[in-house]
Amino acid sequence: MKAGAGARMQELMTELFPLCRSITGEGVRETLRKVSERIPLDIHEVPSGTSVLDWTVPEEWNIRDAYIATRGGERVVDFRQSNLHVVSYSEPVQTVMPLAELRAHLHALPEHPDWVPYRTSYYSRTWGFCLAQRELDALADADYEVSIDSTLEAGSLTYGECVLPGESEDEVLLTTHVCHPSLANDNVSGIALLTELAAALAGASRRLTYRLLFIPGTIGSITWLARNEERLEKIVAGLVVACVGDPAPLSYKRSRHGDALIDRVAAHVISRSAGARVLDFVPWGWDERQFNSPGFDLPVGCLSRSREGEYEQYHSSADDLDVVQPEQLEDALCAVVEILDVLETDRRYVNLSPKGEPQLGKRGLYPSTGGGAAQDEQLAMLWVLNQSDGANSLLDIAERSGISFVTLRAAADRLRDAGLLAEADPS
Amino acid sequence: MKAGAGARMQELMTELFPLCRSITGEGVRETLRKVSERIPLDIHEVPSGTSVLDWTVPEEWNIRDAYIATRGGERVVDFRQSNLHVVSYSEPVQTVMPLAELRAHLHALPEHPDWVPYRTSYYSRTWGFCLAQRELDALADADYEVSIDSTLEAGSLTYGECVLPGESEDEVLLTTHVCHPSLANDNVSGIALLTELAAALAGASRRLTYRLLFIPGTIGSITWLARNEERLEKIVAGLVVACVGDPAPLSYKRSRHGDALIDRVAAHVISRSAGARVLDFVPWGWDERQFNSPGFDLPVGCLSRSREGEYEQYHSSADDLDVVQPEQLEDALCAVVEILDVLETDRRYVNLSPKGEPQLGKRGLYPSTGGGAAQDEQLAMLWVLNQSDGANSLLDIAERSGISFVTLRAAADRLRDAGLLAEADPS
Amino acid sequence: MKAGAGARMQELMTELFPLCRSITGEGVRETLRKVSERIPLDIHEVPSGTSVLDWTVPEEWNIRDAYIATRGGERVVDFRQSNLHVVSYSEPVQTVMPLAELRAHLHALPEHPDWVPYRTSYYSRTWGFCLAQRELDALADADYEVSIDSTLEAGSLTYGECVLPGESEDEVLLTTHVCHPSLANDNVSGIALLTELAAALAGASRRLTYRLLFIPGTIGSITWLARNEERLEKIVAGLVVACVGDPAPLSYKRSRHGDALIDRVAAHVISRSAGARVLDFVPWGWDERQFNSPGFDLPVGCLSRSREGEYEQYHSSADDLDVVQPEQLEDALCAVVEILDVLETDRRYVNLSPKGEPQLGKRGLYPSTGGGAAQDEQLAMLWVLNQSDGANSLLDIAERSGISFVTLRAAADRLRDAGLLAEADPS
Q1: Would you list which residues of chain A are within 8 Å, Cβ to Cβ, of chain C?
Q2: Whole-number Å distance between alpha carbons of B138 and A233
Q3: Looking at chain A, which residue has its C-alpha nearest residue C225?
């Protein structure tokens, strides 16, 4: 990983955090523009009304201002202070109404009286405001001016795609959702991680092709899937990346299949990280829901720290930049890099001296004095030799031995250089 | 379940408890007569001497009276006080003998000095009395008059069969043993449960055919098996029901196969009940031993609370009506009903919109405001959609998701009504 | 097992302990001579320089004397006190050198300052001394006379082979390493156990053929494998035996395959021994490394108490005769005998009365009074009858039931004698 990754990701997060993203509109466009300053990114615009699988691309939503004000003109709820104050996709409104009537449009979190919740109404025309319970309780029983200066008009859904071709057409799909407004961990963190990752991959040699998607949640993955059905058979592994900056240990959520290559690789890699969890697939969460629908059934898992709903600040104004720690972001990036590294380099070898152990000492691969304890690299060589019958890959050996893939690959390299190991016929 | 089931089962138990049942004879006949007042029951009589598999139907045993009396005529052990006092199938005896000689015919429980044990000698001609250890210790060293007024004569073995045909010839076999005298949990409880169940099933629509057997233990199931070999291939699931009223949590004992449909269904249903146990098959217990013999190998498990020998009062006079609690009986009946309900309604569906999630919101199946936590019924719908690829049944989905079959079936019904789900080709 | 086995093994250990064994030379020869006084043993001599798989039989090493002495002639390290003082396979040396220069040739154990370590340098020409850290620390900074009166010359590698033919050509391979000098548990204990075992097997009737190897570690098994490739297909099971006398509970290490017959049998047998461990295969340890190399992949596990490196005294002068307890040796021998007994007698039976349980009572196999608890031998008979459908062996039944193989075999014998069981067609 390139030095300074943590700082670069934090800088991008700081730039992206204030933007008012939604599933369409200028907030997403501006977000992708900032990402495209760092990596080669194709920006796709899909017109409102386009049929995508069972869905239709909705009208584009944009918002300039919104508030609730007293008749004296004092803004008691103000979009300019936080874009969370407006229910995403609220239709325009300009009226005066008494508090009793207004209440049906107000959302708060009684259990966290100082936090503003995040709410949406993408597919059902309505409007609403979110505010802290304490603010709600303080509202006098009076008439209020209610204003949402938004537009819902024919436009387009925007998503970004970064394709980094490799020697092989086999693809690794990496996606993150770009539809949340000022929520830091969910999911400015994921956008920052995928941007830094793309920059690193762009500068590396690649056996596999990488496709990174910056997409609005649900409708974005559905739109991309609808437009790319013929490509799906190239996907050999995939990861949805989200909520990667909070203090929790890493979690990997398996694909629907449960034992796909990505599942095994991710479990191996993160199992070496303290407290890490490997979770079974459930049809809830982020865009893995779409990739793992039965008609596609793609080998796509999900990497995060906390899962949706697991951290207290989730979907509220408290999910701010303080929740995300640069070391946590960098550690998550390292895990993704290591997962991709295993996907790139896992292979099956054949022991060329399979009868008995070959004499490693005469090849300089074994300590000359015997009687002491085994060293890790000796053990790694012995495992590779013992298991390399053409059927077992380095990952298989890592799973059986409990030795890290990296250590085994180094051992395999030494053995291959000594003429004791050859790559197995790939067929 | 029909209201008042607990009270009705308790009432039947109270009627049946005093009867002196054995593997043949009037006690069984009277028991089946009382059952037949409540449900349609065919009473079968199989003549003594009939060959049944490796066995022979024994002579019929009946008893009018039995006692041990002092030479002064005082009954110190009296059949009229408890039918447990006589070893079941005791041959007639009328003699006087000293205590020293009599002792070889007396059975007691030193570890429970106030309880009378239950003992049998069906296939070896002898006679004996059972009494409390305290009574035994109090017997003076004198001569005693010993009288057993029983008959062992050509007659028949009696069992009851209640067949409730369904749309399909596929059968569910439900059996309980009717051979124990005044022991409440083992097994007047099982007779009461199966009677109430038959009454409920008789009034319900049925896809499957139900066959309920009220049979003497071992020789009864062997006799039925011998006479019904050609029917056995219709049996798709079965349950032996016994000891269902004591305070212990439910137990399900798997079939010999271990992973038959009935094993999966019963495990799913009772796992939702506090403290419930799922036990591996062992060739000991009740009539499941016969159904699971290697020559039949039927998918028949066993539902009970305590297993044989697990409760202190087992096979003694302390297994009286106080051991059985009506709520426990009713809870066991509910479990059986729920197991049968799963057998009736489990099926495989196909998601008709398998690419991506279908848009549930536009069909009124999803809350219009987003951002909050998932609700149970939403999750159930998503699970059914995600897994319904034609290979997974609702039970498969219940096992994988941890969601109850009932909740998933309701979700499947809503999805089917919305045109999103169709029953999979049964082939 | 023959009476007095523990005492005989202890006696042999006491004779063998002082000999200076290595992978070649007179120490091994003398060891095998003593073994051959007790069992029929073929002694093989394989000339130095012979190619064996990827290895070459090394020159033969012999040693008469060795010491480090002060210029005043006082021996401060003396081979005559312990053969561990010389690094095995040290080349001859006769010189004077200052302590500073000598230090590179000295090995000690700082964490055990009173113990002399065991070190070897078989395949890299050098010389060295092992001594206690306390002795090393006490050496004055002076010149020392260094003398190793050894020879490294063309000769041969020696191993012993005891073949005990059975009715079948199917072979069980049993091996132990004979290359360690005065180390008691590792591995005079293994030599003593295999000697006693061979004596016992020689006097028993045998269905299987037994081949017992007394071989130098690594190069010995490689040499035997190179010379016996055509025999390997006869091997149906094998055990490497080593470190069998220390106080630790028994351990069985599985073969590379992991679920070979020997793995199942050994796990069943030792699981009945308190604290016993069954360990997965790792390509480290003793000669199981060679037998389990991918080109041979033989069903050979390893029985020991402590594994290599697990006991504190391992590979040091503290591994003396006090470490080995005769009861532990005898207990390990019993385990091996029981494992071989299962290999000899395991078979599949067919229940000849498979429909329902056969009536055991009329054959005298069941208690005549019913109602009490099941007895172990009844349960064993019922398990054998229930599972003997031709597919399950007695070992399968032992694994499923948790009943010992010995008890089940006795039950099967009774059932076979009663005409209820026949051996299944071996095909």
Answers
A1: 351, 353-359, 361-362, 368-374, 379, 382-383, 385-389, 401
A2: 87
A3: A356
Whether the upstream peptide bond of residue B386 has omega within 30° of 0, thus cis, is: no
Pair B398, B383: CB distance under 8 Å: no
Sequential pLDDT tens for chain B (427 residues): 568 899 999 999 999 999 999 999 999 999 999 999 999 999 999 999 999 999 999 999 999 999 999 999 999 999 999 999 999 999 999 999 999 999 999 999 999 999 999 999 999 999 999 999 999 999 999 999 999 999 999 999 999 999 999 999 999 999 999 999 999 999 999 999 999 999 999 999 999 999 999 999 999 999 999 999 999 999 999 999 999 999 999 999 999 999 999 999 999 999 989 999 999 999 999 999 999 999 999 999 999 999 999 999 999 999 999 999 999 999 999 999 999 999 999 999 999 999 999 999 999 998 877 777 668 899 999 999 999 999 999 999 999 999 999 999 999 999 999 999 999 987 5
User: Could you tell me if C190 and C144 are in contact, meaning their C-beta atoms sit under 8 angstroms apart?
Assistant: no
Q: Pick the residue of A183, A219, A282, A292 with the most B CBs within 10 A to test the interface with B by mutation.
A: A282
Kindly list the residues of chain A whose beta carbon comes within 8 Å of any beta carbon in chain B. 53-55, 87, 107, 117-124, 126, 128, 218, 221-222, 225-226, 229, 256, 282-284, 289-290, 292-297, 309, 315
CA quadruple A214, A219, A223, A226: dihedral sign:
positive
Chain C residue set in contact with B, beta carbons under 8 Å: 351, 353-359, 361-362, 368-374, 379, 382-383, 385-389, 401
- Alpha-carbon distance A39 to nearest alpha carbon in chain B (angstroms): 29
Rounded to the nearest 10 degrees, what angle do helices B405-417 and B394-401 cross at?
Answer: 130
**A126 contacts in B (CB within 8 Å)?**
368
Q: pTM of the predicted model, to two decimals?
A: 0.94
Instruction: Find the helix or strand (DSSP H, E) in which A68 lies.
Output: strand A60-70
- B33: Cβ contacts below 8 Å, ≥ 6 apart: none
Distance (Å, rounded) from C-alpha B126 to C-alpha B148? Answer: 11
Angle between helices C261-270 and C394-401 (to 10 degrees): 50
Q: Which of B53, B117, B226 sits opposite C371 (nearest CB)?
A: B117
Tokens of C305: 């108490």
Quickly list H helices, A356-393: 376-387
* Pair of tokens at residue B316: 């003694």
Is C55 within 8 Å of A388 when comparing Cβ atoms?
no
Backbone φ and ψ for B17, nearest 5 degrees, come out as: -50, -45
